[in-house]
Design a protein that fits this description.
Two copies of one chain form a homodimer.
Chain A lengths: L10 H12 L5 H8 L3 H14 L2 E8 L8 E9 L4 H12 L4 E7 L5 E7 L2 H13 L4 E14 L20
Antiparallel strand pairs in A: 2-4, 2-5, 3-4
Helix pairs in contact in A: 2-3
The first copy, chain A, binds a DNA duplex (30 and 30 nucleotides) through helix 3.
Pfam family, one (chains A, B): AsnC_trans_reg
InterPro entries (chains A, B): ArsR-like_HTH (IPR011991), AsnC-type_HTH_dom (IPR000485), Dimeric_a/b-barrel (IPR011008), Tscrpt_reg_AsnC-like (IPR019888), Tscrpt_reg_AsnC/Lrp_C (IPR019887), WH-like_DNA-bd_sf (IPR036388), WH_DNA-bd_sf (IPR036390)
Protein name (chains A, B): ArsR family transcriptional regulator
Chain lengths: ~170, ~170
DNA sequence: TCGGGCACGCAAGATTATTGCGTTCCGGCG
DNA sequence: CGCCGGAACGCAATAATCTTGCGTGCCCGA
């Protein structure tokens, strides 16, 4: 279980990470100006975030509706047999299906929440059939078609800056 | 309604966009090598994607569990009064709450699906109380605590490359 | 058949990122 | 109480990357 204790973050770290998770396109100079640090100091911190796995990757976010019609759906799923192997197989199918944006295993009567993105209602329907109806280990599933995307993103609420790591040599 | 007809995309466009939405950290040189184009040609295409709004932004993705304990939840919500104004107010609250990662308005008995990210179970609970219990226009809501994140991301399945835009001057 | 539009590659030129170095601050230890 | 090592900083030089101007080839429409 790769869980080295969460690195201690000072206020500047939190500011930087928050800036980056909202817009990773800025220059080191800009970032530095924002948090009051030189470009090289900013660069070194960011390198550390990467090394520590705080930043996993950097992605371009596409606008679904600029690619023509797009159908989103949230699907609630309950498996029939709950064996370890069945769960594994289901998860693997979700991971390997490009139209599956997100998949969470959850507590309660439902086992999974799945977010789908398809190019048409027809594809969305087919997808539901293929992923859930054709699987005879799915007890029940319910498709919640998305009318409107109010908010989207993967931004995390960052923990308040821990007062630790107070030793630093800036003026 | 700002909907200029979706730009036609050739196979290279699709490849580039797909590469970018999975890893926007590559250099123009790398991307060019991948799709068989010079760095400058790649740069010009990407500039166009931005101008056309295909790429909305570029973000760093953080690993929730590297920041210490993290609690995710999917919440299903049904409003009481369905007036336009009530919907607007709810949406605005979702947008302005950092712990709300995603919020979709959906068809069916439930009105919204909301994805929450909190630093602790306690914060998650408080958040539910603040966002939903304290709102007397919420008829009912159900919290699905996330046990495991099987898959996450915002990647779109890209449409098959349209054969259009076949005129281009590359060797 | 000719001309315009468009995308390309190449090669400067401009910007940005990276690294080496010397300095300061802090905490631990003799 | 003073010294030493570690960590982070700023500055400046270097390296890498991005951006842009220019000339060329291709396709389409006139």
């Amino acid at each position: 279980m790769p869980e080295p204790p969460p690195p201690r973050l000072d206020e500047i770290d939190v500011q930087l990470l928050d800036l980056l998770q909202r817009d990773a396109g800025r220059t080191l100079h800009d970032l530095g100006e924002w948090v009051g640090l030189s470009p090289s100091a900013v660069q070194r911190r960011i390198a550390r975030y990467r090394k520590d796995g705080l930043i996993t990757r950097q992605v371009a976010v596409l606008d679904p509706h600029r690619f023509g019609p797009t159908v989103l759906a949230a699907v609630l799923v309950t498996l029939d047999q709950e064996s370890f192997e069945h769960h594994r197989a289901f998860a693997e199918r979700m991971r390997s299906t490009p139209q599956v944006q997100q998949c969470y295993q959850v507590a309660g009567p439902w086992d999974y929440v799945v977010v789908l993105a398809a190019r048409s209602m027809r594809e969305c329907s087919r997808l539901g059939n293929r992923l859930f109806k054709a699987d005879d280990n799915i007890r029940r599933y319910e498709t919640l078609l998305v009318f409107d995307t109010v908010k989207t993103g993967l931004a995390l609420p960052l923990p308040a800056s821990q007062p630790s790591r107070s030793q630093d040599g800036r003026s």
